Amino acid sequence: MTSFFQYLGDTNLDSQNVFSKEYTAWLSSVVLGDPGVTAWLETQLEGDQLDAFREGNYMVELNQNSIDGAPYLTFGDSGSFELTELFSGEKDSFTWYKGKTSQERWFFDSYSVPGGEAENQAPTDIRLDVGLEFAQSLNGAGNTAAGGQTPSGEVIGTLSAIDPDADENHTFEIVDGDDRFEIVNGNQLKLKDGEAIKEQDDDVTVTIKVTDQAGESYYKAFTFIAGTDAGQNQQNAEHIDGTPQAGEGTENDPATGNDIALGFRGVDVIDGSSGDDILFGGQGNDTLYGGEGNDQLFGGNGGDTLIGGPGDDILWGGAGADTFKWMLGDQGSVDTPAVDRIMDFSKTEGDRIDLKDLLGGDAELLFTEGDGKAELHVETQGSGIDQKIIFDNASLAELQLAFEATDAADLLAKMVDSGNLIIE
Fold first, then answer.
1. Where is region (Disordered) located (predicted)?
2. Do β-strands 373-379 and 387-391 pair in parallel, antiparallel, or remain unpaired?
3. Order of strands across the sheet that contains 323-327
4. Which pLDDT tens digit goes with each residue over 370-396?
């Protein structure tokens, strides 16, 4: 719960106008924005007042002249409702002056929800979902004489908060790190106009703070790691390693190990850390290991190998014959299967799914469909589904048509026969 004094922060109560403005704003955004208060009011109001409250057709009114009077809501011709039960503690006072005459106004600094306040919980993570336009701009990065780089001034992706509280609104801000970034439209991370990340740049870090409606915050550092164009072939590939995962997500100890690795030109082997990593192969036949966490892998141009690792991963192969590979241990559990998404599987380009290192002796595979998308359900040990692979760009019928299969079982057999599904 955020008290009125906490809400004020550095704002000084130096006039009646300032107080009225800030106190009304606190009541409207913090008190009435509390899910516990909303739920309680739903049980107290009825008829036209309840309808008006649900539609937001009410005014918040102050009661400052009385030492025990609480704020109240007015509903036009439908009367008013006292908020006395929310403010049962002692009042504070504010003194202001009109000429030489002092005026004392009373207010409640805190509130409590009748029957028990619904305790707000702080956000627990920040996620950056890369925009497809930015990703595709890196597919063949490095075709210019100037060398590989991101497009300047580009929106990188959208920020979202992981929060135990439902229906929260969040505010994002950059609080530390390289000054070539900005946040636009409230939740989009963008390179400033004229700014880019280039081959051979030192690691570039930006720390982002997210704050919920109650003022609780979480801090996360994102590190951009640029390749150097050193990899010439598979035997002499450039290795790019992620940073270790650490940090408590606080102002003094932000969460780290969440990397955006940029392969650019050449042949790269990119290893993510245990955080939520974003890996770009760029140009060349690259190998991407997401590691633990919910990762986003973009192969780019060339025949790439994408290994998401444990967690729920998003896999974009890009142009070329790509291999989407799973290893033993990448699966979840029967209670909570891992769910990975292949965004652009293509038989025409020669894409393959490699499960041979994932499957036990009693493994079972089944093609099905969910939400209009083909799904491959895997029982790695034959004791229940613990891995799901979603084909985000194809329905089951479209996948069967591509392989000239009559049904789901026939699809499985024909993908194995054609080498597009490797199981042994």
1. 234-258
2. antiparallel
3. 238-241, 268-271, 287-289, 305-307, 323-327, 352-357, 421-422
4. 999 999 999 999 999 999 999 999 999
Closest CA to 109 of 124, 93, 120: 93
The token duo for 367 is: 């093609």
Q: pLDDT digit string (tens) for 343-352?
A: 999 999 999 9
Q: Tens digit of pLDDT for each residue in 57-83?
A: 999 988 765 556 788 899 998 899 988
Taking the alpha carbons at both ends of the chain, their separation in whole angstroms is 57
Place of tokens 């004229």: 194
Helices 35-44 and 47-55, axial angle in degrees (round to 10): 150
Q: Which of 316, 287, 318 is nearest to 300 (CA)?
A: 318
Using the predicted structure, report yes or no on whether residue 143 has a pLDDT greater than 50: no
Looking from the CA of 194 toward its CB, the CA atoms found within 13 Å total 1
How many C-beta atoms lie closer than 10 Å to residue 234's C-beta?
12
CA-to-CA dists, residue 101 to 64, 93, 98, 166, 305, angstroms: 17, 16, 5, 48, 78
* Exposure string over 169-188, b if 16+ CB within 10 A, otherwise e: ebebeeeebbebbebeeebb
Burial 65-97 (b: 16+ CB within 10 A, else e): eeeebbbbbebeebeebebeebbeeebeeeebe
Q: Sign (positive/negative) of CA torsion 9, 12, 17, 23?
A: positive
Model confidence, pTM: 0.71
Based on its alpha-carbon atoms, the radius of gyration of the chain, rounded to whole angstroms, reads: 28
CA distance 270 to 280: 8
- Gap between the Cα atoms of 159 and 376, Å rounded: 29
